[in-house]
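Glycoside hydrolase family 16 protein
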Amino acid sequence: MYMNIFTALLLPLASVSALPKRAETLIPKSVFDNTANLEQYFTYNYPWGGNTHNGGARMDKDHVKISTPGTLTITAQPVKGQPPAQHGGKNIPINYLSGAVGAKQHFTVPKGGGLSFSGSFQATTTKGTWPAFWLTAVNGWPPEIDMAEWKGSGKISFNTFNTSSVLSWKDVTYSNPGQFHDIRCELRDKNGKDTEVKFWMDGQLQATHVGKDYTGKPFYLVINLQMEGSSGSPGPTTSETFVTHTSIPMNANILARYDIFGEESGGHNIVTDRYIE
Ligand SMILES: *[C@@H]1O[C@H](CO)[C@@H](O)[C@H](O)[C@H]1NC(C)=O
């Protein structure tokens, strides 16, 4: 940053809002232009390791494709004879092969700063399909923010967990699932401890939540097409249905940004000074 000696001396007296914001793009819009770009920013399967989680799909690389430049497509395919997944002390039957990608980097809301995630999604709402664009804790659990998840019900859900039983959630009717919808999620440090989370769909604010003690904690970013589990079962059974309805193509707009706006400002409302693009 350019700063002459006089500015440097004056800075401690200047208000926080006079500080220039700093912003850095963490995942660029070109991330889905080709497989090399995808693999620069994302790993296959879950970013904490493993290819199963809390539903009926086993993830692999073959079900994740850059179908056309700028579009990531994850396809779920029915399968038989797979060993079950183990989650929460239970066996979960695996009835599908599908895909997940996890960002290679971790994302942390710093004190006085924030993160923004945006992407366009075309997501199935068929019963038994459970696509999601979400953040979850690197250490322990929660935090978890479901920036968008579709649980096979015709709705889209936005969730922020304080504990497994105390969460903020909003389910919204999801019209035209055959089209792309813009999702945007903004995380802002609220008070040095808690993080305010705002969810937008197609430019409209859908919900504002507060995540307890989220500031300073690293997140994984995951995009996956889980099956069954919270989206109900049985899921769809024919291959054709999978190709057409259980793919989630996503366009090139996955963008993660980090913004920080000077030091913590002692309760001063810096929301209006912060942000964006
Ligand atoms: C989660 O915790 C934050 C911070 O204490 C609080 O503002 C919010 O209301 C809590 N959410 C729920 C659902 O209780």
